[in-house]
Amino acid sequence: MSTIPALHPDTTGLVQYFEGLKLAAYRCPAGVWTIGYGHTKGVRDGETITKAVAERLLASDLAAAADDVAKLVTVPLTDAQRGALASFVFNLGAANFKGSTLRRLLNKGDIEGAAGQFERWVYATIKGKKEKLPGLVTRRAAEEALFRGGDWRAAIPAGAAPAPVAQKVEAAPVPVPLIRSAPALAGTATLTLGGIAGLIDALGPAGELGAQAIGLAQQVQGTAAQVQAVAEQVATAQGQVAGAVAAVQAIGAGPSLSSLLLGGGLLLTLGLQVWERLRASR
Description:
By secondary structure, the chain is mainly α. It has helices at residues 10-19, 51-72, 79-92, 94-98, 101-107, 111-115, 134-147, 193-203, 209-219, 224-233, 238-250, 255-280; strands at residues 22-27, 33-36, 123-126, 129-132.
């Protein structure tokens, strides 16, 4: 494990508060076997530990989470930011953090944008249904408060008791992104693969959806007929891009550009649907 700066002193207390101490193995709301202060690695049904062991496991797990943060974040962090991210990674895992919009924005230097991403990671799949958990909502608010340099305890409603948190956390669905600059598409006359790729670029970052949407675009062979086939599969999504088409027409763009927006928007919507199915099947 690499050498990393010390965590903010509030980090351990935050994790202990939200995880709670359980000396016998139990299943979290998402069905993951857990023990101690949110420890999950190698936990078996019927296992018991002492408080001293729970504290050692917590120290080790937090150190591993902090190490993941150090490896995955490329910008300088304050102790408070590092501590909040360590709690975040402790709960949802390094893989989720690595692929998150939070990390992408943070590594671009967008601290405010990154802080606003904590609140998305409040879902867990309970008995096959994706649910928003109050315990995760409060924990993310506390982590965001610490990330911003404040007191994480202030994010806890007065008199509220700790609510269960899941050890398998998911983000909120990613909305289809709004068009950043319609004029940037001017001059594109036909609905080709290159045109769709240009549309995706103009739409800007699409968070976790971006890679899937671009991958789908690369599978399209560049004809209007093929995009129409996609449109038929996601006909119910037409309303989601109608506003964008109307906006382009309002600025005097021709029908080819409107068709480009419609096809590209439908393609992104299909990408979102595929991505949601893949994530739900994990």
